[in-house]
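How a chain folds remains the central question behind the approach discussed here. This step matters because it turns folding into a mapping between discrete strings. The sequence in question and its structure tokens are set out directly beneath this paragraph.
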Amino acid sequence: MKRSDKAAIIATMLEELYPEIPVPLDHSNPFELLVAVLMSAQTTDLKVNEVTPALFSKANHPAAMAELPVETILSDIRQVGLAPTKARNIKRLSELLVERHGGEVPSSFAELEALPGVGHKTAGVVMAQAFDVPAFPIDTHIHRLAARWGLSNGTTVEKTEKDLKALFPKEKWNDLHLQIIFFGREHCPARYHDLTTCPICSWTATKKRIRDEAKR
């Protein structure tokens, strides 16, 4: 089956499975989303949602966050992975948002990626969810499933993003980003996954990949 045909069927299946698509990270404005996405690296969304209320009760916009000592930020986010580095980045990006952007979160990839701790994936999530700009942020779930499903060769996240953007209509990118993540979490784990019983892997994965995954 051609990749384009696979992609069309997958998109239809995911739309049926997830017609309503909640945003995983709790936030009330673009700045809270930016901070939450930054914190989500090597940390579950559940854990981020547990720690952000205390931090955002102290500061939920750049000017207020820039005034907080790094130690205060760290005390609220200590439970997330790489907390000391993330606390410093949150403090510094807040200062830069005030200095460079009038205290607002910019709506461009280049300006977002110029901020400390903000990579392409983080910028893509903010662009998609805060500003409704089509993006296809590639997290570990999407990178893994795109390879399993034969939609990309999985060599790099950059290659996966390019391949998926070519396969799916631009207007579906933002929804598919979340739908694939939810499917990965609920149906398609990284380890001990029987591809032959998976609703999508069972017909998209090659025989070689099924054999290789069974050996893990």
